[in-house]
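ZP: hey, is the cytidine-5'-triphosphate complex queued? I don't see it on the tracker
AM: it wasn't, my bad. submitting now with these inputs:
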Amino acid sequence: MLNVGKIEEGFVLDHIPAGKGMSIYYHLGLDKLDCMVAIIKNARSGKLGKKDIIKVECDINLLNLDVLAVIDHTITVNVVKDGEILEKRPLVLPKELKDVMRCKNPRCITSIEQELPHIFYLADQEKEVYRCKYCDEKNSEKM
Ligand code: CTP
Ligand code: ZN
């Protein structure tokens, strides 16, 4: 059994669907952060069979975790302080997402004006549908 120790300060993303760990690593920009990161792939889990876990030793406020809810609801965010879990932060679908996904409509203004931010708004909470703020195109990007 592979063991990764507990962290002192930072956060643990737990119950990540197996295989999505690396994608989350890049979506959160962890590759650009100068802090300690552990990615555990295919950890055994009672509930999911297999899961991924990411442990990050840095201030959680440095990151925008909005994208996590869009990727999967099962992910839990554990905030750790002085070696103890301080808080389990619930994931909520953000009303608006900036530069997380790109609009695929070739006629969209964001396809022409390259410097515009790609902004999507939550159009349907139940169905988890996001639409482009500029052209209303439904997001088709798999996260
Ligand atoms: N963890 C850690 N460092 C700490 C405390 C916890 O890395 N100082 C990790 C644990 O290894 C675990 C995750 O944070 O992967 C969640 O910890 P905990 O809430 O104790 O586990 P569970 O009770 O199994 O969580 P849940 O109820 O969310 O399934
Ligand atoms: Zn668009």
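AM: back. The chain has two domains: 10-89, 96-132.
ZP: great, adding it to the tracker
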